[in-house]
């Protein structure tokens, strides 16, 4: 939520739903910029080492952002003539584990919320936070408000969980890259999970996981839609993430194309092809808390092989250094580490891929026609990902979008620049 | 607390006390301007009528200010190498009644704090707030952090409660009015209570009441003192509010002079001198939630009398209107309401007044010599207050300060203005 004007609009939107007979629980995020402001203050004071004692205080600090926006929304709702009450994470309570700054929800007691709903009140619950078994305040990490909303909807067995965000739904791909990307009216939960894990930023992956675990129907819609549009229209807007795979969905083989830009590839060349060699390399990387994404091992030749893997670009230099210092000396002569810090991953996702063959080959053919060299491939039941040079990412996404019949009408005007 | 730089200085000051072997509990206020910022946001959203439902949310909102500064201080202390942990009001818990925005502390459970102290940690407790019996967040009202600090000191039976404020102690009077006002090294609790209720802004009156009830020795000192001054020097600085009346204190008949500027006087003239007449007038005023301070009733003459009383200047117009509309019509012909919105109250306070006669007469003589007309007088065992025209307030305070031997060396340079 941004300014008080935006808070007032949220209140009016909620009032519209209440007047139509719905019981509503709202999980607001902090006001825009507030979490960053608070954490910037902490950064000025923090010691070099971030201990658990520091993380505990960062959570107590960051949790105030949602507490403030929740109280303000409760005030705005009362100004609209509705009964309303705000609950913090501990007042619900939302119980989590003790992993400060990235806690996981363990249970939610819906009783206090239900009581207030029965009294006709709109209940506001601070997202992003909970308490652990020792009554310490915890937070769920960035985007945690979405996860809170889904978890609360699950605890209350809500009919639907609406996620108001800064986009008006889930698109076949990022409309900033493909101007005629289409908004999907619905998408299966499994596809959404893949898209979220493959780089789509619409929903935090843990909120999608939670929705899947408890089968909470989610709808992603835009917080920029005017609050006073027709309720029925609003209820149909955005993208529904559903557990029912209807016929219409079966028609599209590929539902969406996701991509990431912040990856890097590292190859260890000429390593002895002996059992445990992958562990020797990747174990050292994992021990340094570096997350590895795609891994491929080449066919062995003369008892030697090459192992390549991708990491987040921010970890690139550190990983190279680590391999040079700790791993290469153990692998013997002829072993060499090379890398490319400018690669991207492009993925096609669709539950139709289960029953349609030839999807992957269409992908490879399309990229080949555009002279895009595929460096790595990884697949699962409903997705195929390729690692390519970053400079080809827009070209690859656009050509695949067309090849899989996802192009709609051009929606977004690309601004013309003069000079 | 102001900027992060000020928070860091607080941490360093606390570290100094800890290194000298003290167990420390810190009760920080919100960062400077934060409470006002939050309440200004609420003011943009609030409905005209401030119900209990609104007040509940204002408290949940305002309480975030202290929660944030407490977490930041805990981080700063850890950066100084000290163990530290912050507790919100509900984590202690600090239990209050349910009077949102002006709750009263009912009890404090010191167990959680004691446990952490025993582990060698500095414990930070969010001031200004608590929870009621139903787990709603409450706040104590402006200046509530002082009250929290005293109440926590009482619960823990602390040796001393240090109140760091923006002045370096309690003065014989406001140094902005009397340049050679002296800082008192100590003052009795009873005198401090009178001074606080008579307009001295150094301490919130409820914190002084609490200190009295639980006999907590309080020391008022300056948060602007450099954090690295000698500890023994800091421990002797400021003003100690004590329960022991030593001989030295007995020597000063008057310890301090307090004054208010924001008062107004209202007189109802020519009212029938019948039983219950004061109630008829003042009852109507009290029913309108207007607080009355000084009241005098003149001697009756021909069965008629005059009743005068003072109210806060902000209530002046409303009180006049109320009397004209509701009270005068019932009192019959000849009754008239007049007022003066520009009066002040000047008070001399001292426990020496108990055993020394002639203190009041010295006050009246001094004011008479300066041609200051006394409009009302009210006394108690250890204070005498006079109501005078506001334009004489500085003159009255300065001449009384000299007359009662309170002048010290000139401390404050009055800036010279040219032209």
Automatic annotation (TrEMBL), chains A, B:
InterPro entries: AceGlu_kinase-like_sf, ACT-like_dom_sf, ACT_Aspartokinase, ACT_dom, AKii-LysC-BS, Asp/Glu/Uridylate_kinase, Asp_kin_monofn, Asp_kinase. It catalyses: L-aspartate + ATP = 4-phospho-L-aspartate + ADP. Its EC number is 2.7.2.4. Keywords: Amino-acid biosynthesis, ATP-binding, Kinase, Lysine biosynthesis, Nucleotide-binding, Transferase. Residues 266-342, 348-419 form the ACT domain. The keyword Cytoplasm does not apply. The keyword Signal does not apply. It is an enzyme of class 2 (transferase). One of its GO terms (molecular function) is aspartate kinase activity. Pathway: Amino-acid biosynthesis; L-methionine biosynthesis via de novo pathway; L-homoserine from L-aspartate: step 1/3; Amino-acid biosynthesis; L-threonine biosynthesis; L-threonine from L-aspartate: step 1/5; Amino-acid biosynthesis; L-lysine biosynthesis via DAP pathway; (S)-tetrahydrodipicolinate from L-aspartate: step 1/4. ATP binds at residues 165-166, 171, 176, 201-202. One of its GO terms (cellular component) is cytosol. One of its GO terms (biological process) is homoserine biosynthetic process. Substrate binds at residues 35, 66. PANTHER family: ASPARTATE KINASE (PTHR21499), ASPARTOKINASE (PTHR21499:SF3). NCBIfam families: asp_kinases (TIGR00657), PRK06635.1-2 (NF005154), PRK06635.1-4 (NF005155). Belongs to the aspartokinase family. This is Aspartokinase.
């Amino acid at each position: 939520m941004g300014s008080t004007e935006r808070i007032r609009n949220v209140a009016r939107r909620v009032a519209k739903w209440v007047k139509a007979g719905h019981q509503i629980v709202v999980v607001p995020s902090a006001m825009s910029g507030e979490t960053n402001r608070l954490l910037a203050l902490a950064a000025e004071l923090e010691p070099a080492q971030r201990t658990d004692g520091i993380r505990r205080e960062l959570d107590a600090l960051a949790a105030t952002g949602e507490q403030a926006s929740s109280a303000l929304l409760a005030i705005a709702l009362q100004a609209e003539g509705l009964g309303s009450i705000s609950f913090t994470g501990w007042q619900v309570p939302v119980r989590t584990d003790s992993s400060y700054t990235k806690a996981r929800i363990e249970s939610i007691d819906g009783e206090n919320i239900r009581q207030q709903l029965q009294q006709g009140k709109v209940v506001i619950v601070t997202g992003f936070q909970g308490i652990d078994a020792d009554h310490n305040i915890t937070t769920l990490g960035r985007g945690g408000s979405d996860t809170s909303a889904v978890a609360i909807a699950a605890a209350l067995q809500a009919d639907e969980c609406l996620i108001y965000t800064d986009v008006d739904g889930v698109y076949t791909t990022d409309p900033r890259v493909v101007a005629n990307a289409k908004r999907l009216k619905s998408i299966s939960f499994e596809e959404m999970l893949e898209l979220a894990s493959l780089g789509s930023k619409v929903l935090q992956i843990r909120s999608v996981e939670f929705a899947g675990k408890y089968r909470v129907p989610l709808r992603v819609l835009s917080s920029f839609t005017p609050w006073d549009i027709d309720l029925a229209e609003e209820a149909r807007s955005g993208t529904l993430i559903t557990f029912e795979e209807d016929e219409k969905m079966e028609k599209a083989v590929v539902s969406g194309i996701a991509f990431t830009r912040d990856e890097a590839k590292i190859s260890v060349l000429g390593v002895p092809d002996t059992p445990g060699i992958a562990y020797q390399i990747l174990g050292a990387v994992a021990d340094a808390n570096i997350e590895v994404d795609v891994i491929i091992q080449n066919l062995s030749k003369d008892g030697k092989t090459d192992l390549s893997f991708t990491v987040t670009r921010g970890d690139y230099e550190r990983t190279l250094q680590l391999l040079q210092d700790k791993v290469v000396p153990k692998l013997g002569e002829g072993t060499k580490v090379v890398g490319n810090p400018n690669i991207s991953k492009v993925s096609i996702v669709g539950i139709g891929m289960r029953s349609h063959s030839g999807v992957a080959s269409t992908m490879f053919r399309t990229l080949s026609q555009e002279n895009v060299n595929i460096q790595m491939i990884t697949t699962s039941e409903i997705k195929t990902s390729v690692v390519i040079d970053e400079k080809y990412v827009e070209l690859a996404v656009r050509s695949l979008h067309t090849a899989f019949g996802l192009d709609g009408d051009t929606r977004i005007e690309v601004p013309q620049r003069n000079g």
